Amino acid sequence: MKLTIPLVRDQLTSPKLRPCRVARLSLIIALAFLQTQWNSVPTVAAEPTVEVPWELRPYQVKLLVAFDTPQQSSEANRELLVDIRRTADRCIGSRWQLSTELANWVQPVSAEGLARLSAAEIRDRNNQQEGEFDAYFVVTVLMEGSSWRVNVRGWQTEVAVESEVTGTVTYDRSDLPVQILRLCHVAFRPIGLVDDVVDKQATVVLRAGALPVLDESFSLTKEAKTFFPLLASRTRDGKIDCLQTIPWTFLSVTDAKGPRLTCALNSGLRSAIGGKQRGRVQTLAVAAKSTFPTTQLDLATQAKPSLSLVAHRIELRNSPVIQPAEEGSTKDDDLLKVLLTDRRGQVSLPATDNQAVIWLFAYSGRHLLARVPILPGMTPSIRLEVPDDASRLEAESDLQVLQGQLIEAVAARNTAIARVRGAIKKNEPDRATAAAADLRKLPDASFYLDRVIAIRVPSVKAAKARKDRPGEARINRMCDDMNDLIKQYLNEDKRQVIFEELKELQADEAADKQQSGGNS
């Protein structure tokens, strides 16, 4: 910015102002001095904002502590908050930017009081802006005689994750800071960023993973061996405004090198996770843990209204591929448990000891309805909707009835053929002709092929109406198999051979009669 003295001088010498010459001269000199001083000040450019790399970005953590310790003063409670921050600096280091505060508004100071809280209430109580903290932990410290009972519950609002209430008991007050931080660490869910996906393998960059940790028991990857992905859409200022869960998809850690984790991609979807980040949409990976003893599975149809699937077989396996059993062996090493849905279409899935992802197979009879990965105990309940299999079941039922009729028809045909052939061998043309007449009355292959068409057409139409392409394909496959059976066992060549043998017998008999008549 520069001042222009000529412009100011012209305004001052304007006849409209008519100031005295001395005053004009003094003012011009003063303006010239100001111009010299102004132009000599160097222009300072604004420093560009440098974005902190994901693996060096610490978590902003808010720890709220409520005390029910009548034998301790408020000053002692505040000293405990200071001890918690000091312990966090020694154990967790710079991965957590921890701030502590008293939370006397939590009532009752127990696990029941924590269970009633919500993330919105915590923010309102503390007048916090949304996104200011990555994680909130509310701690209750209750004195019970000579011991202290500690309960913790956590919320990570940015990724819409909250933990259940966890607790412990300690008999040493000096051990309270470590126990509180350990419970917070158990409730905390590390967050990663999916950097690359190749085939069934993904690379995840862990947030704050490159920052040093002084106590390895507080490592981010110590308990986080499984992650579930989220699609996060961010605003221009970096805040998440929309989250979308990718269903039936998990990332299992196979190798860890610093902040970069190599994970196996397990998904019930064909294309679950894309590759690189697109625009302001990121694929986040949040640590998944089994915190419930069981998970209730609701098995239902995708049709509207949805129907519960009763008495359907559920198999829990270690692998997504069923390996064929060795010859002479019925042992299945991958099979963990076989369950059956109840009259409400529900089944209870027990959590595994190693908290590893397992595969769930849902069957309707011998037909596979769904195959998805699952982590039992991650949530108290989950719903699995599968295609409505009613069209296939109806077609299969009709085909089984037709198959029974086909078996009876094949048996009747073989019996009639045997009667004709027996009469031919005994040279009894009259009995052979009568047996052949009974054979001609039996339905041929075209009759049963038409029955298959009558089953196929409405069943396929119903499957198309439900937009059940897998069901449509299965119906066509079953009908094709039935056509092959009909053509195989009701082959017209067998009847034609018998009829030809009968004609030869009749021709021989006619020749014999003609010869005997001529001799007479």
Would you mind describing this structure in some detail?
The chain is α+β, with helices and mostly antiparallel strands. The chain is 37% helix and 27% strand. It contains 11 helices and 20 strands. The strands form 4 sheets. Strands 1, 2, 3, 4, 5 and 6 form a 6-stranded mixed beta sheet that branches. A 6-stranded antiparallel barrel has the order 7-8-12-11-9-13. A 4-stranded antiparallel beta sheet has the order 16-15-18-19, with no helix packed on it. The protein is elongated and about 150 Å long. It starts with a helix and ends with a helix. The model is unreliable at 1-19 and 43-48 (pLDDT under 50).
A few lines on this structure:
Helices cover 37% and strands 27% of the residues. The chain has helices at residues 5-12, 21-40, 74-91, 111-115, 119-126, 176-187, 390-425, 429-441, 445-465, 469-489, 492-519, and strands spanning 59-68, 96-102, 135-144, 147-156, 161-162, 166-170, 191-198, 201-206, 226-234, 240-245, 249-257, 260-267, 281-287, 294-301, 313-317, 335-340, 346-350, 358-364, 367-374, 381-386.
Q: Main beta sheet: strand number and arrangement?
A: 6 strands, mixed
Instruction: Work out the radius of gyration.
Output: 41 Å
**Total number of helical segments?**
11
Q: Round the mean pLDDT to the nearest integer and report it.
A: 83
N-to-C span: 145 Å
β-strand amount: 25-35%
User: How many beta-strand runs?
Assistant: 20
Global geometry: elongated
Uncertain residue ranges: 1-19, 43-48
State the share of residues found in helices, binned by percent.
25-40%
Structural class computed from helices and strand pairing: alpha+beta
